[in-house]
Amino acid sequence: MSLIPKIYGSISSTCTQRVLIVLEELGIDYELISINMRAGVQKSPAYLSEHNPFGVIPAYQDTDTKIFESRAICQYLTVKHGGHLTPPSDPVQVAGFYQAASVEYSYFDPPFKQLAYESLFKSMMGHGEPDASLVSIYQDQIRKCLDYYESILDKQDYLGGTTFSLVDSYHMPWIAFMAVLGLSTELESRKHLRAWWERVEARRSWRSVSGKS
Amino acid sequence: MSLIPKIYGSISSTCTQRVLIVLEELGIDYELISINMRAGVQKSPAYLSEHNPFGVIPAYQDTDTKIFESRAICQYLTVKHGGHLTPPSDPVQVAGFYQAASVEYSYFDPPFKQLAYESLFKSMMGHGEPDASLVSIYQDQIRKCLDYYESILDKQDYLGGTTFSLVDSYHMPWIAFMAVLGLSTELESRKHLRAWWERVEARRSWRSVSGKS
Q: Which residues form the GST C-terminal domain (chains A, B) (predicted)?
C-alpha cells in the first residue's frame, strides 16, 4: 500500500513551507505532522534517529524513502514526480537555474535566517536583546541580494529562468516574512521584484500554504 | 571558435579547487586565470560587472555562458558534458544524492569556512586574534558532521551514494585542509571516513589539482 507522504515540520517554518509549496505545485496529497519545536521534539532521540540527525525540520517520508533538508526534498519530489518543476536540461538554462539556486543558499537565506533570529527569536527564546550592529549588517546583506535580484528580474520573469521553478519556491517563504521583519519597503521599492512577487504569490500553491499558516 | 573554459580564481582557494576537480574528472582542458585576492581584484568594478556581482571567486566562462558559484559551475559542467558524474535519475538514489549535497552546504562547509577565518585568516588579515570560544564552537560543529559522515560511510563507499559523485568533490578541498587547521586526528580517528579519503585522494583528478596548489 502506498504511503501518503508525511512531512514532519511546522506550518510556520519557512523551511517547511518550501516543501509544502512544491507538494502543492505537483498536486501531491500529504500529511503534515506537526513538530512541537518549543518542546524540543526535533532534538528528541526518536526524531534524531528516525528523521534528521541534525535535529531540525522538516523531514520527509514516503513509501520509498526518508529524506531531510528542505531543498533536497524538493529536488527529490521533482525527479520522482516529473512535471513542470523539472529542472532544465539545456546547458545554458541549467547554468542560470543552478546559479540562482546557489545564490539563494549563499546570499539570500543566511542573512534572512540570521536577521530573524537576531531581531525576533533571540528575545523570544530568552537569549537577550537584539544586537543593533548585527541587525544592520544582515539588513545590508539582504538589500544587496535584493538589488541583484532586481537586476535579474529586469531580464527574465522568474529567478531561475523564464518559467516558475524550484528556485522561486525556495525564496517565497522569506519574502512573505519580510513584513514581519520590518522590510516591506525593500520589496515595494523594487518594481521588478515586486512584480515577480505578485506573480508568484497569486499561485494556487502559495495561496494554499499561506492560508494554513 | 570554441573557447577553452576560463576559471577566474585561485589554486589555493577551496571553492576554486572544487571546480577544478570536476574539470579534471571530466577531462576538460581549462585556463586558470589567477585573481589576486590580497589586492582585492575580486572586488574591482570590472570583476563585479563581468564575473560575479558578489565579489568572490571562482567564476567560469566558456563559449556559451558565464556562471559563478562553485557548486553551480560543477552542476552545469556535468549537464553540459555528461559522463560519470551525472547525478542519478532513480528517485531513491536521488534522495541520497541531494540530501548529501545539502548537508555539505548546511553543516559541513559553514563551520570549516568560519573556523578557517577565525583561526587563520583573521590574524593574517589584521582583524585581530582568534576567539577561542568561537574556534571551539566551529570545531564541535565539524566533529558532529564528521560523525554523521562516519555513519553514512559505514553503509556506502561514497558520500552521495555507491559511486564517486559531485558530492565527494565538494568535500575534498576542506578535508585536505584539515591538517592546516590542526584537525588531522579527526580524520585519522574515523576509519570509514579515512578509508573514503584514501579512495578519493588517489584519484587522478585530485592528484592533479593538489599538485598545483
A: 90-213
